[in-house]
Write the structure tokens for this entry.
Amino acid sequence: MDVLRARKRQVEPPLARARSRRQGEKNLRVPRYFSFLRDPESTSRFLGEFAQKLRRYHVKLDFRKVEVIGPEAIAAMTAVLKSRKRPQFSRVRGNDPLSADARMVLEKSGFFELVRHSKPLERAATGKIQTRGSDQVDGRLAQDLIHFGMECLTGVPARSQPVYETLIECMTNTRHHAGGESNQVEGWWATVYADEERRRVCFTFVDMGVGILATARKNFFIEITEKLGLRDDKDLLRGLLSGEIGSRTELKGRGRGLPKICNWSKAGRIQSLLIVTNFVYANVELAEYRLMPEEFDGTLLYWEIEP
Amino acid sequence: MNTAQLVRIIIAKDFSDTPGGRYRSDGAASGEEFREFQLKPKFLNAQREGTILEIDLDGAEGYATSFLEEAFGGLAREYGAQSVLKTLKFTCADEPLLIREIESYISSAK
């Protein structure tokens, strides 16, 4: 251990060491139900704090009391970690959940490959979750994720047109809108998780851009609220999904991506569709829309299919 | 019209089985790229020769709305909806509803 420390000191430049001491490390407790499906408010609050702390400090993630971890929450945490808004000097480390189920999901996700961890992961621990990221609209990556997920459950890589189209619509929205006024291209992260117990392939798409509603509100809010009688952000998201409100580009033929995703959900071709963006949590399948006390700084979509 | 006069584009085979987004700047296999390098030359050729251009949509992973709108709506913006609808014929056993969706993009292209 001392040898390792001594070697690390040799490698780490003195300036970085000094900065590291100055910045310090902050502990951050991961919520007991770290899942947008189970507890969107706590999960969103935690991710906001995580992103904020990462801008100034090293962070130690305390997973010990976590009982449930959703693959969609891991995808969001990965997006925060990989966000371009995060300064490069900040380091993240973490411990294991005491719950065996939560630990298994975290290990399978490969999340600890992105952060410092006390124990090396066993090779067999990874395998049923894959994460991919880019800032392009990348059909090959979408294909990889779908085929991987389908193969995990059926033994055969297979297509899923609704999932492919949902992924491409999400990538396109991120590329065209997530940068907001800056027109900077945001990156996105997509995760596939093969849930063997429930026989479902679960997909998450997340970006840390300005959020769907911030984009729409900027161009439509005043006009649309008056014309359509929309009261708040929940109604605004409902309007975007139904196609009542077009895209912010104001060009013909735009703004059809979200309604199409919503239609796949209505037709039962994708299940459990969940959208979290800005202050809104929407369980589209159950038509449950609610405002969250804390803002989710970006856009997250989660859905499942039965292969 | 006999079958010898029918020209076909099988998108999954002739272009890509993973169609992408709207513009070439979005990434590989975009709607704009498909329109400019596959669809438009064959459409113009079919128009010149008075034949039908068949677009076979089967075999691809899927088609985003932005890809379809840019490819077919874009063609209609340039050459007119009526002329595009008259020249193109679509086949799609994988997802037959896709044909109606594309025709709506062509009809509403402005």
In short: Chain A has a mean pLDDT of 81. The radius of gyration of chain A is 20 Å.
